[in-house]
Specification:
alpha+beta, five-stranded mixed beta sheet
Length: 188
């Protein structure tokens, strides 16, 4: 016996709505990792790219990189060893950042980073950075962290970045949950 057209239509609509709701829930769970992957790949929202292996192709143009440091909810002193650095586009740059734990106990934290202006983030590439892992600093310990980076030569050809003469690399240290595994601090 065939179902009336009205009942079939209602079941079809109900099935479509169930599929739609399941798809929306799946997208909600996947949105954060997808957004992070998109930002890392494109430099969107000031997210610097990370490279496992650098390919340096220097061009005859220099750029000033200004360093900014902040801490949120930590008894730490955090500062760059030098406020700015002039780097040749396409050539490696090296910066050091000092962190001192002023507390009487070890603290684990992670640094978040940002590049400004936002258009430059797609071309600012870090090959080594303390921000890739949690850092544990012992009570009273002072640590120096290196950052190796370069600016992709495509920076000079992009109409949104070609006139820029300065980039700001900003770091903010945040405490991490105690349940997260700790990694040893960088060499002092």
């Amino acid at each position: 016996m065939a179902l009336p057209t009205d009942v079939r239509r209602r079941r079809l609509v109900a099935g479509g709505l169930v599929v739609l709701v399941c798809g929306m829930v799946g997208l909600a769970y996947a949105s954060v990792p997808l957004y992070r992957a998109f930002c890392a790949a494109t430099g969107f929202n000031g997210t610097a790219r990370r490279a496992e292996k650098a390919i340096f192709i220097p061009i005859d143009r220099k750029l000033t990189v200004r360093f900014d440091t902040n801490v949120r909810g930590l008894p730490w002193d955090f500062e760059p060893e030098q406020a700015t650095s002039t780097v040749q586009i396409g050539k490696a740059g090296l910066a050091y950042f000092r962190v001192k734990n002023r507390s009487d106990h070890a603290i684990r934290a992670r640094a978040a980073y940002n590049v400004a202006p936002e258009a430059a983030a797609a071309y600012f590439i870090k090959t080594q950075c303390f921000c890739f892992n949690d850092q544990t600093i012992a009570a009273g310990q002072e640590v120096s962290f290196p950052v190796i980076y370069y600016v992709d030569p495509k920076f000079a050809k992009d109409s949104s970045t070609s006139a820029l003469t300065e980039i700001v690399l900003s770091y903010t240290f945040y405490p991490t949950p105690e349940s997260a595994p700790a990694s040893p601090a960088a060499r002092s």
